[in-house]
Amino acid sequence: MTYSTLAVLAVVAVLAVDLAVYRTRMVTRRVFWVAYAIVVTFQLLMNGVLTGLDVVTYDPAAIWGPRIAYAPVEDLLFGFAMVTLTLASWAAVNRRANTASRRDRGTRTRRSSTR
Length: 115
Description:
Layout: H1 3-21, H2 30-52, E1 67-68, E2 71-72, H3 73-107
Antiparallel strand pairs: 1-2
Helix pairs in contact: 1-3, 2-3
């Protein structure tokens, strides 16, 4: 399987996890895209440095070819997948913790006097 195929599969899998499994709908929120714009800026900066200085090289047969800041576009797909999965997982865990916390508060009642 090529790097390009894996990058596309990673994005599809993460979108499925976000929208169908965790149901955080992270990618539908404006705040996510603002945060992602900041992340992708630094990703492009670092990819540009690493690939521009030949610290990291790619087999031309394994990538589509187009590059942004010296890095193949597939790197942006993998970066998107990693950032999105991390944020969606964080939101899902946080939501579960908040739900459990509210549930605990709601069940703390006094004992019935009829016992």
